[in-house]
Structures are given as structure tokens and as C-alpha cells.
Inverse folding.
């Protein structure tokens, strides 16, 4: 398990990050990973997520589930990281799913048509 960008509580719930910050918690192995996000995914924080998704991909990820429950904001740069990671995983026989987007994040996914691209639960 790897956490970057901040701390997480013992119960697994994200500590609210500072405004503009992103917390990334990666867990899993044997090809299945969960990436939990808290905070803001934007131009300044997207490289942090991209680096973690590249890392799990090089470790042989076949299924990556990105938990968006604690994501407060996402912009086009954050969406681009998710899309490019999905393309990469699918190109190598894997897949990515999104879980628990907040109403505002779900709305962004709907407006951009990404609800038709990603499996979302």
C-alpha cells in the first residue's frame, strides 16, 4: 500500500486535504489495484495521479478501480490523466473503473460523455 500527498486516517477515510491538494492512496496487488483520491485533481495535481497510475501499470495492473468519493474537484487535466490511463490499460489487456463519484464529479463525467467510456459504480 502506498499513500502520497497526505495522510489517511486509521479507518481508511481520507483526512480532508488542504485546498488545492490531492491525496492518493494506492492498494492492491496481483493485477488488481484500488486508487483512492481525496482533494482536487487539476493541472497542478494531475502529475501526481499520473505517476501512480503509470507505476501500477508497470507492476502489471489488469484492473484499476479509482475511488472518487472524496474527490472535491476535477478539471480537464485530471480527466485527461484518467482517459490516457484507461487507454494504456486497455491497450495492454487491462481495464479501469470509476467508483463513487460525488454528484459534481458525476456531472462532469456526464457532460464530457465519459459515463459512456468508463464503467462507473
Amino acid at each position: 500500500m502506498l499513500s502520497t500527498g497526505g495522510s489517511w486516517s486509521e479507518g481508511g477515510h481520507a483526512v480532508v486535504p488542504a485546498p488545492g491538494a490531492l491525496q492518493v492512496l494506492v492498494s492492491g496487488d496481483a493485477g488488481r489495484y484500488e486508487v483512492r483520491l481525496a482533494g482536487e485533481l487539476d493541472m497542478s495535481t494531475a502529475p501526481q495521479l499520473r505517476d501512480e497510475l503509470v507505476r501500477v501499470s508497470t507492476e502489471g495492473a489488469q484492473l484499476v478501480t479509482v475511488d472518487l468519493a472524496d474527490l472535491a474537484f476535477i478539471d480537464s487535466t485530471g480527466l485527461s490523466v484518467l482517459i490516457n490511463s484507461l487507454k494504456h490499460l486497455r491497450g495492454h489487456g487491462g481495464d479501469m473503473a470509476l467508483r463513487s463519484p460525488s454528484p459534481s464529479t458525476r456531472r462532469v463525467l456526464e457532460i464530457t460523455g465519459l459515463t459512456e467510456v468508463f464503467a462507473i459504480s
Q: What stands out?
A: The radius of gyration is 13 Å. The domain at 38-121 is CATH 3.30.750.24 (Transcription Regulator spoIIAA). The longest strand covers residues 63-74. Residues 1-8 have pLDDT under 50 and may be disordered.
